[in-house]
Amino acid sequence: MTAFVLPVPPTPSVAVSGSAERFAVRRIFCVGRNYAAHAREFGNDERDPPFFFTKPADAVVDSGVTIPYPPLTANLHHEIELVAAIGRPGFRIPRERALDHVWGYGVGVDLTRRDLQDEAKKAARPWDWSKAFDRSAPCGPLVPAQKGGHPRKGRIWLAVDGKVRQDADLAELIWPIADVVSICSEAMELEAGDLIFTGTPAGVGVVKPGETMTGGVDGIGTIEVTIGQPK
């Protein structure tokens, strides 16, 4: 039995819809600019190939929580996303077999310290401090693909205090789920427990302390997260 000098940290996990079991999270990959309108709202070309950034596994938190407003920012943004949960390992996965590796789907929010991201872009530095901070990856319960199938269309939306900000359809994804999984596996050997946040539609915006985000994806579920006061 392996001995550790410090207590082993708890395993990050996501709830599973209709079950007391949870999905252990290994890594979190996120796709940038995967809806044409969102790419255009930031002045980018929607024809560019997808690119990825990461968040630590322990950035994930459940729906229904209150998250302290994060430090080092005055411009926290919401980004609603469909999340694909990987259930089978694979490397250089062909597109036509990619969905076989997806265990299920959930609704996530990629929280972003936009001011830090803008500074990083100007300085040609990594985005880590703007994306990979504590509690920056809220995720609702996962729906197994065996139960809900593999979504190709359906409404994806987010509201802040009841006012809809983001409202699109999964059919508008530039790179559908199978492409995203296949392309990601070209660079990284995907493993069971990996989550892929598949990109956000247009309408991202500021969320402030005291405000509540609600969102959802048709056929998958919903998410609710409140932003609390700074620590």
UniProtKB/TrEMBL annotation:
<dbReference type="Pfam" id="PF01557">
    <property type="entry name" value="FAA_hydrolase"/>
</dbReference>
<feature type="domain" description="Fumarylacetoacetase-like C-terminal">
    <location>
        <begin position="28"/>
        <end position="227"/>
    </location>
</feature>
<dbReference type="InterPro" id="IPR036663">
    <property type="entry name" value="Fumarylacetoacetase_C_sf"/>
</dbReference>
<keyword id="KW-0479">Metal-binding</keyword>
<dbReference type="InterPro" id="IPR011234">
    <property type="entry name" value="Fumarylacetoacetase-like_C"/>
</dbReference>
<protein>
    <submittedName>
        <fullName>Fumarylacetoacetate hydrolase family protein</fullName>
    </submittedName>
</protein>
<dbReference type="GO" id="GO:0016787">
    <property type="term" value="F:hydrolase activity"/>
</dbReference>
<keyword id="KW-0378">Hydrolase</keyword>
